[in-house]
Structure formats: structure tokens, C-alpha cells
């Protein structure tokens, strides 16, 4: 059988087409508001690209108010801002939003301002991109004008879908804006002849604005005869193959490609002598507190689809306090064997105890280049990979583009180029983004790719702590906090053949499982007298919620919607209410409704006994539970399957509680499906029961939300 090669190689050298930044560049102000660093990273990317396009971005965080002054700003302003929580501004943008919302500002306050805004959000949350939209609307109300249409990028489907084309279009918009501003100013000054600077500046821009962001690669017929193989594309003649991570099919395999510009390297990395102390011990930030896990319980039966664990932590030795509704950030390491596998693949495993010295390349072309703050000085290689880098992060296209430079096999190189190209967009989503591939998965699939350590450190983002809602009340459990979570599992797929657990939940389950004991279907820690030396310890930081708390008026009725682990904060609410009722028998307490849902009554109905007790003594007035997989096909009766079905069955009470009795509704749990479905069901309920159309019903929800009586704590 003759073998054919599926792809062709490359003709052009993609490194060659860079243009040096121009000596005289047009300034624009670039502001970002970031919670977890994404808006900041995108702003930095814009700043880097700006210089390729003849512009100079002056970058500031929205919170650095001393560094910019919008009241006087005449240059174009670009804002990149994320949204957090339930449509709230990131911490770094709170003051800015508050300031521009000041009611006394007049309608021409920002009439001099020209801006473009890129909002980041997640459409799984109902207040999608709310912070960006609020800023956009308010700037408009204050007379500012957009020089480029706003972009709203959705993390639910991939930020890059909007971010990449938005950045691509920004340069043209900036150029047009600057050109027209200049011609206006030249007319205004009556064709002032001595303005050499402005003309020179325009010339500089025009020569520099050739679109360098995307480089066109064409196919090279000759390299298609390269039969060196590699892992990628050898296809038997006559065989019809489907595309895979390493294999492309026509038309992509025959297409010319637009690939992103090669990100300029900016880190010099040196490995020094070996570190003597234990390289795996966390150097925690000041806000973190070490706490002991005093008990661990498996809440689900062995045959449940998901395993749910409850952990109790002792916070009595720390200054930490919380209210029901608050969360805690937990600092977790990457899986040690995965780290070792990655270091082995990078050829540096034997150096894992060596201290890493980082420096910014003195000659880097990257505009915003500084050492990653999340990599502490004097850390070992192993420490950095365990505690500082999100090694599971889905590699971005810029990362793939960099990997091309370190790949020797022509077919693998071509495939990596396809995957980061405009044309390979669908393949990137299908083979990398959807199965959540990591850098290690990619390196295993592309064996001739051997990136340097500096490339890896330049591209892997910070390992984020994971948040967990308090599932207890400190009032009834002094010095203790409970958290409840499902052990996340990524099932095997063609691109990643082994099952993988979530970084944090996998780690936590390993941490507690060896010391758990079986006890009547539940697992518990053994009773140990002085357990502090044997019990696992973790670092946590407080993450208070701004609004997701019980109403201060105890007489106000509340509706809680929390299927699965979404019940966590409501257990805290109910424990708190129980204690309040015991201690204040004369006070009046409003009705409490809980809508809970799970798969099977007998396998994953978590907190079943505790809820029964809350009901029996009157803390919980109404409990509605739905079981999505316990449907009985033999009867005509249709049982509620999901929480929204029970909301529908109790529609009149829901409306009474919210509108006649000024009650509150709280929704907690899965953002992907549940929160959206509940939101849609509430629109239906309100429009039916209040006899208004759907648009009006949506306004009713917006109004409840504004009054902080429709509250969400959802996660994906
Ligand atoms: P990771 O390794 O980070 O993986 C999780 C990611 O993988 C998610 O993005 C998810 O969408 C994706 N994913 C999951 N399964 C698959 C799959 N099969 N295939 C592909 N992708 C997949 N969680 C709780 O359980 N209980 C809580 O009380 C809780 N409270 C929270 C409160 C807040 C304020 C926030 C922001 C989040 C909360 N979370 C809670 C979520 C929690 O922080 C973690 O995200 C979750 O536990 C997973 O962490 P991990 O490191 O184990 O998973």
C-alpha cells in the first residue's frame, strides 16, 4: 500500500515579516479592570500589538486613578473590563464605576472623550458583561463617543471569538479616528503650515499600520513530498479519514493560513543550584491562613454519578470570620505526577529542585514585559509548576503559535499552524478547547515540539485558587466552616485517553480519602485525640459576598433555589436561621422555601436528614425536591424533574412571596444550565401570573435584581 502525505508544508518564514516599532507613535490610553487577570492580559496583548501598528498604548489599571484623568483626556481611550459575580464590576473597577455613576455629572461631562470598549463576560450568567455594558451606557449618557463599536466577549463559548477580531479591527478604527481628528484640527487651525510634527506622525502611522497581526502562510508544494512522517498525517491511499487533533482534512489541509504574529519572547530563564528545603511546601500569600481539615464526609452513595464531599475546617486559630453566603478561596497545587510528566517531557525533570532565576530580556520587543508576579523569587522548578502555573490551562492560539517555532517535524508544524490560524478556528475549538486540553496533552500529541522553559513560563497563566461557598453558619458552628463540592472528572476522550480529575477537587479528595473510614455508607475521619499533626492542612482566604446574604429583616420571606452542591450556602442560611429562632423566640421570621434537585432520591439527595430536621422544627417551611433520573415510566403521572419544574408547580406562591410580601429569591449552583433554565422559567411564571408580556417580565427581574432581591451565586 502506498502512503500519501495529507498536508503540505510551508514556504514562508513566518518570523521574517515583523516591523520594528516606529520612533514616533500615536498615543492612546488603555485602561483595564480585571478580577482574575484576563482583562489585564488582553490589555497587555493590545499594548504589545499596538507598537507593531504604530501606536503607543499607555496602560493603566482602572484602579490606578493617579495615572490617568478622563476629564482631560484627548487621546482615544480603550477600555478592557471584565464582569464578576452576579454582574458586578471587578474589584479594580468598583471605584471607577461608582465615580462615573455619580448623579451630579452633566450630560456633556465626557463630551471630549472618544473611546472603544471590550467587555469580558460569561453568558452562562444572566447578567452577561454587565460591567462593560454599564460603563458603555454611562459614558454615552455623559456625552462620550465611541470611535469603535464595543465588543462583548463570552467566556462561555471562548473569549477569543470576539477578542481576536475586535483587536484586529481596533487598529483600523484608531487610524481612522486619528486621521479624522487631525484633519479636523488642521481645518480648525486654518491649514497651519508649520505643523510638521502632526504630519510626520501621520506618515509614521501610515507606514506602520500594515496589518501585521495576521501573517498569510501559503502552501509549499515541495515540502508535501517530505515523508519524514512525524506523528501527524500519514494517510493510506483511498482511506477516508476524519480530522483529529493531529490530522487535518481538506479544505483546511489545503488552505493558505492566517496565523497570529509570533509573540515576542520576553523572559530569560536560568537554572541555578539546587534548593535545599522541601520544594513542595507552599509559600502562601499574606491573606492566606493555614487551617486543619477536621472532618470529611462523603455525602453521596458509592453508586451516585458524582461524588460529593463535605469538609469541615477549623478556623478558630485564624482571624477568619464569615456570614452564610460568603465563600472561601482554597489554594491548591497541581497534581504532582502530572507536573513530573510535564517536566520530563520538557527534558528538565532531573533539574526539578534547581532554583529558577527569571529576568526580563533586555532586548525584548514586547512592550509590556515584566516578571510574572505570581512566581516568587528563589523558587525551584518543581515549586513553580506545582503552585504557581495553571498547567491545565487550555493553550491559547498565541501559545500554539510560539510552539510552532520549537517543532521540527514539518507536518506537526503545519498542524499547529492550522490550529492557531483563522481558518483552523473550528478545529481549535473542537480538538483543543472543547476537550479542555492542556500543554502536556499537546506536547504528547506533537512529539517533535520541544519548547524552552521560558516559552512555557511566558504563556502559562497563574494558578488560581478555587472558591467554595460556606455550607455552615459560624453562629451554630463556632470556629468552623464547612464546604461541599463534587469531585470534578474529565472523562477520557480521543485527545486525552485517561480520565482526569479537577485540579482542586482531585487534590482535596486525595488529601482526605486515605484517612477516611467507611461508616454506614458514609465516610468519616477517625476520632483522634490530638489530630492536628495527622489531619490534612490547607491554605484558605476569605472571599466575602457583597449581597448574597440573608435579608436583615428576618420577617421577609425567602425562596432558595439550589440543586446539587448549589444547596451549600442554604445549609448555612438554615443553620443560621435555626439559631436565630432559638435565641429570639419573640422575633417574627418569614417563610423559607427551598427548591432542591438531584438525580436519585437514594443516591445523591445530600443533606436529606438535616433538611428533614429543619422542616420538623419549622426553620424550613417548604421543601420541594425533584429527582431527574427517578422518573417512573409505568405511570401517567409526570413528576417534576428539575428545580424549575417545581418552581412552575408553585408559581402562585413564588409570585406571592416576591411581590405581595416583598420577599427574596436566591439561586445558587451550576451556571451552565440550571441558572439559565431557572431564569427562563421565572420569566414565564411572572408573565403568566402577573399577566404581562415577556419583556415586562424581564424588566420585573431586572428590577428585583436592582433591589438586591434576586440574588445569584453561580459557578461553571
Ligand atoms: P478544574 O481543574 O478547575 O476544572 C474545572 C473546569 O473544567 C471548569 O471550568 C469546568 O467547566 C470544566 N469541566 C468540568 N468537567 C468537565 C468535563 N467533563 N469536560 C470538560 N470540562 C469540564 N464548587 C463547588 O463544588 N461547591 C461550591 O460551594 C462552590 N462555590 C463556588 C463559589 C464561587 C464564588 C465560585 C466562583 C466557584 C464555586 N465553586 C464551587 C466552583 C469551584 O471553585 C471549582 O471551580 C470547582 O470545584 C472545580 O475545581 P477543580 O480545580 O477541581 O476543577
TrEMBL record:
EC number, as in UniProt: 1.16.1.8
Annotated CDD domains: methionine_synthase_red
Keyword NADP among UniProt keywords: yes
Gene3D superfamilies xref list: 3.40.50.360, NADPH-cytochrome p450 Reductase, Chain A, domain 3, Nucleotide-binding domain of ferredoxin-NADP reductase (FNR) module, Translation factors
Pfam families: FAD_binding_1 (PF00667), Flavodoxin_1 (PF00258), NAD_binding_1 (PF00175)
Domain Flavodoxin-like: 28-171
Entry keyword annotation includes Ligase: no
Keywords: Amino-acid biosynthesis, FAD, Flavoprotein, FMN, Methionine biosynthesis, NADP, Oxidoreductase, S-adenosyl-L-methionine
Cofactor section: FMN; FAD
GO cellular component, one term: cytosol
GO BP: homocysteine metabolic process; methionine biosynthetic process
GO molecular function list: [methionine synthase] reductase (NADPH) activity; flavin adenine dinucleotide binding; FMN binding
InterPro entries xref list: CysJ-like_FAD-binding, FAD-bd_FR_type, Flavdoxin-like, Flavodoxin/NO_synth, Flavoprot_Pyr_Nucl_cyt_Rdtase, Flavoprotein-like_sf, FNR_nucleotide-bd, NADPH_Cyt_P450_Rdtase_alpha
Residues in FAD-binding FR-type domain copies: 286-551
Protein name (Swiss-Prot/TrEMBL): Methionine synthase reductase
Species this chain originates from: Polypterus senegalus (Senegal bichir)
Amino acid at each position: 500500500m502506498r502512503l500519501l502525505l495529507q498536508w503540505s508544508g510551508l514556504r514562508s518564514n513566518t518570523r521574517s515579516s515583523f516591523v520594528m516599532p516606529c520612533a514616533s507613535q500615536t498615543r492612546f490610553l488603555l485602561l483595564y479592570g480585571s478580577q482574575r487577570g484576563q482583562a489585564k492580559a488582553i490589555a497587555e496583548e493590545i499594548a504589545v500589538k499596538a507598537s507593531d501598528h504604530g501606536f503607543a498604548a499607555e496602560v493603566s489599571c482602572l484602579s490606578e486613578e493617579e495615572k490617568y484623568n478622563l476629564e482631560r483626556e484627548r487621546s482615544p481611550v480603550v477600555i478592557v473590563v471584565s464582569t464578576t459575580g452576579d454582574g458586578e464590576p471587578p474589584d479594580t473597577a468598583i471605584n471607577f464605576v461608582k465615580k462615573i455613576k455619580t448623579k451630579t455629572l452633566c450630560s456633556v461631562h465626557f463630551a471630549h472623550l472618544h473611546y472603544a470598549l471590550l467587555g469580558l463576560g460569561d453568558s452562562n450568567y444572566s447578567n452577561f458583561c454587565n460591567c462593560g455594558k454599564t460603563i458603555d451606557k454611562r459614558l454615552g449618557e455623559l456625552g462620550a463617543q465611541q470611535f469603535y463599536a464595543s465588543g462583548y466577549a463570552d467566556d462561555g463559548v471562548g473569549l477569543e471569538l470576539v477578542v481576536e477580531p475586535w483587536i484586529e479591527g481596533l487598529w483600523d478604527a484608531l487610524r481612522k479616528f486619528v486621521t479624522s481628528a487631525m484633519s479636523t484640527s488642521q481645518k480648525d487651525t486654518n491649514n497651519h503650515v508649520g505643523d510638521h510634527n502632526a504630519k510626520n506622525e501621520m506618515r509614521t502611522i501610515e507606514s506602520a499600520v500594515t496589518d501585521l497581526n495576521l501573517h498569510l502562510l501559503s502552501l509549499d508544494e515541495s515540502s508535501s513530498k517530505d515523508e519524514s512522517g512525524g506523528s501527524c498525517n500519514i494517510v493510506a491511499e483511498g482511506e477516508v479519514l476524519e480530522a483529529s487533533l493531529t490530522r487535518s482534512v481538506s479544505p483546511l489541509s489545503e488552505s493558505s493560513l492566517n496565523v497570529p504574529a509570533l509573540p515576542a519572547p520576553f523572559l530569560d530563564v536560568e537554572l541555578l543550584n539546587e534548593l535545599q528545603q522541601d520544594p513542595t511546601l507552599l509559600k502562601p500569600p499574606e491573606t492566606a491562613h493555614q487551617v486543619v481539615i477536621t472532618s470529611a464526609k462523603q455525602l453521596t452513595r458509592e453508586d451516585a454519578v458524582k461524588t460529593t464531599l463535605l469538609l469541615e475546617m477549623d478556623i478558630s486559630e485564624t482571624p477568619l470570620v464569615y456570614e452564610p453566603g460568603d465563600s472561601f478561596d482554597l489554594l491548591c497545587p497541581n497534581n504532582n505526577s502530572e507536573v513530573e510528566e510535564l517536566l520530563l517531557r520538557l527534558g528538565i525533570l532531573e533539574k526539578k529542585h534547581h532554583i529558577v532565576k527569571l529576568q526580563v530580556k533586555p532586548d525584548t520587543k514586547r512592550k509590556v514585559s515584566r516578571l510574572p508576579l505570581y512566581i516568587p523569587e528563589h523558587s525551584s522548578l518543581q515549586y513553580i509548576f506545582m503552585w504557581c502555573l495553571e498547567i491545565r490551562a487550555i493553550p491559547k492560539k498565541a501559545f500554539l503559535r510560539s510552539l510552532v517555532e520549537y517543532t521540527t517535524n514539518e507536518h506537526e508544524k503545519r498542524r499547529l499552524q492550522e490550529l492557531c490560524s483563522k481558518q483552523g478556528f473550528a478545529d481549535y475549538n473542537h480538538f483543543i478547547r472543547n476537550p479542555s486540553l492542556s500543554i502536556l496533552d499537546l506536547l504528547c500529541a506533537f512529539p517533535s515540539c520541544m519548547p524552552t522553559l521560558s516559552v512555557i513560563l511566558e504563556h502559562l497563566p497563574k494558578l488560581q485558587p478555587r472558591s467554595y461557598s460556606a455550607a455552615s453558619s459560624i453562629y451554630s458552628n463556632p470556629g468552623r466552616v464547612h464546604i461541599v463540592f463534587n469531585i470534578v472528572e474529565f472523562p477520557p476522550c480521543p485527545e486525552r485517553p485517561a480520565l482526569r480529575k479537577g485540579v482542586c477537587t482531585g487534590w482535596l479528595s486525595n488529601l482526605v480519602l486515605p484517612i477516611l473510614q467507611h461508616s454506614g455508607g458514609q465516610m468519616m475521619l477517625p476520632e483522634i485525640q490530638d489530630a492536628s499533626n495527622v489531619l490534612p492542612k490547607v491554605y484558605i482566604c476569605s472571599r466575602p459576598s457583597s449581597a448574597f446574604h440573608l435579608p436583615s429583616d428576618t420577617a421577609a420571606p425567602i425562596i432558595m433555589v439550589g440543586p446539587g452542591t448549589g444547596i451549600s450556602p442554604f445549609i448555612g442560611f438554615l443553620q443560621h436561621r435555626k439559631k436565630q429562632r432559638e435565641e429570639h423566640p419573640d422575633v417574627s421570621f418569614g417563610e423559607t422555601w427551598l427548591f432542591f434537585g438531584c438525580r436519585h432520591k437514594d443516591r445523591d439527595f445530600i443533606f436529606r436528614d438535616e433538611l428533614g430536621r429543619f422542616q420538623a422544627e419549622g426553620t424550613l417551611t417548604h421543601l420541594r425536591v425533584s429527582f431527574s433520573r427517578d422518573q417512573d415510566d409505568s405511570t401517567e403521572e409526570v413528576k417534576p424533574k428539575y428545580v424549575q419544574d417545581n418552581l412552575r408547580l408553585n408559581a402562585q406562591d413564588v409570585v406571592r412571596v416576591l411581590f405581595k410580601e416583598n420577599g427574596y429569591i436566591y439561586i445558587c449552583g451550576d451556571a451552565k444550565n440550571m441558572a439559565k433554565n431557572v431564569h427562563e422559567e421565572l420569566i414565564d411564571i411572572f408573565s403568566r401570573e402577573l399577566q404581562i408580556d415577556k419583556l415586562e417580565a424581564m424588566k420585573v427581574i431586572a428590577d428585583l435584581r436592582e433591589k438586591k432581591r434576586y440574588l445569584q451565586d453561580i459557578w461553571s
